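Intended use. Records like the one below are meant for learning the mapping from a protein sequence to its folded structure. Do not use them to infer anything beyond what is encoded.
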Amino acid sequence: MAVTAKANRGADPIHSEPREKLLDYLRTMYEIRFFEEKVYELVRSRQIKGASHLYAGQEAVAVGAVASISRDDMITSTHRGHGHCGAIGNLWCDSDEDRQTHWNKMLAELMGRETGYCRGRGGSMHIADVEKGNLGATGIVGGNIPIAVGAALAESFKQSGAVVLCFFGDGAVNTGSFHESLNLAAVTHDGLPVVFICENNLYAMSMPWHDRSVPEAPYASRLADVSKRAEAYGILGLQCNGMDVLDVKQKVSQAVQMCREGKGPVLVEARTYRYFGHSLSDQQRYRTKDELEEYRQRDPILLLRHRLQEAGVATEQEMDAVMEQARQTIDEAERFAKASPLPPAVELFEGLYVPKDPIEFAREREAEEALRARIRPIEDEIRRLAREQAGVPGGAIMPKLKKEDLQRLEEKYGIPIKYYNEALAQAHAEEMRRDWRVFVMGEDVGLYGGAYAATRGLWDEFGGRRVIDTPISELAIAGAGAGAAMRGMRPIVEFQYVDFTTLGSDQILHNAAYNRYMFGGKTKVPVVYRSQGGVGRCIAAHHSESMEAWWLYVPGIYLVMPSTPYDAKGLLKAAVRDDNPIMFLEHKLLYSGAMGPVPDDDYVIPLGVADIKKPGEDVTIVAYSRMVHVALDAAWELEETDGIRCEVVDPRTLHPLDIATIANSVRKTGSVILMSEGWTKGGVASEFLRQILEYRFENGYSGWDYLDMQPIILAAKDVPVPMSESLEDASIPTREDVIAAVHALCQ
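Structure written out for the chain above:
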């Protein structure tokens, strides 16, 4: 087969490369090509299940790019990522045996085997080896780009000099994650060390990028060159021949060196071509056979062979031997994968969460219970004073005091009394002093101090490098937090309103929550996503939702919702120290509406421990966040007027849920009211009830067996939150609703 492009010998970089490296590039390219051909066969014969997006034709990009970095660096990859994984895996190999093991693990993963890189949890589109710099591929187009930004941010904090290569296709260039991420990388820490590599293979599935061989086909961009989009972010854009491994290496090496010098990020466009369709079901009507043949004439492997022979580096026989060695490696990988076992079904949940040490958990629980015994009398006295000051009951009464009462109680008990937002700010500061890896990022968290003052004072103490004010880019912020966490940092990412987590949901769900499990339990993503929701300010549906049910639904992420200043501080500190991703949701009316004792002690409240806010024997009320205060106000009223003693249980963490404490309360009272400010349909209260009914006690009985009355759910009406105060008030449970429900159960 003829090669259309010949090199200029005088300027050819082939003369500056060691012979063994050039032959290794050739070997790796052959390994990737044979691997993809093998995958094609195995998919067609249904020995590989699921989708596989083949990389054949693009080998020069992965090999040339990875040749420009060291083992200190890392990559993020795409659904068409076999080449990336193959190349960086080879970078870590010191022997032929290591190399064989690497390709064995790759093919075993695609075949869903226990011996695969991700133990069969990820497969073709989600392969990773985080310990060796491959931060993983994603099946969501562009989904890896924010992760790369976060990983680069982590290296910027560490001042390690490491660089992140972020691979993606031309289809990703039109996604929000591309635009948000490149801009965030450009403005954060004056530019992050990340090289964005667009493998422009001319088609996003069936959509041509710009030029078309089928005239009637649509196109994705009026701008022919992806690299020119760099100008919009004030960064350098380079272009290289993605069919020439040495040109790729030269351009990416230039970009990498710029990043090491603090001049990143850089966008590199590699013009390349894929020989197979988007997937094996692709009929490829969007391109002609002549176009495909034209690019096969530019085959990256044949081009490298031609140049090696022309430069006198290797003979045809020597290159054929390299080719045969690569073929044998992939054939052996096939034998290994086919002989490997499938993951046993009993291990289905293995690797989903980072387990907590049971001895440490017990110690923390015991310490917190002792501290809580000192706190509870103060909280009760604050509530009593607040009720006395309110006079005639009407609406739920929040625990808020006059200044003179606050000072008197502080002197009496010797414990500071703070607002909810002050407790959160204190928790942030304490954790940032304790651990340099903790940082805060989000919109208006720095100079402004947070939309509800939960980060006030942090900028003054820690500066803009650790308290990062970001552009309005929820998707990129969410992913950057996850990427930084995967590289060992402890990010606290703030979304101003929980409604806005929907904009970052791809990254929170598909990367932060899933990556540990999807990568075989071989990574940690210790990121905290803070936000607030709920009604009370007449700002309507886009700023008032209670979306905890959305995040309770997602496996792989914990959900924390504190109701008091004491809980807010202790739970946030625990969340920051936990190795799992956590959604930490507050309520907007608690920030300056709830006061309580907050010890200066370095205390944590272990996740998964409920709190009985008020003991009782007649009715169990399960409530969380602001609804705790609604429940407590009603419970105090019921005891004072009717002698009915309700037990109010605050889960504090919705996941992990302390179902034992809740179920034992129901066992004692025989009845339960479940409260939530979230919607009734598909809501948190329904999930709590399911777990109560299914709970098994030591005697073999279930929660169902101990219920004497039909459970009552008090949750929000199934409407978007209205703006008008009268309608907003009518949309959520009230103290009067609680009192009526308790009376109904006690008739």
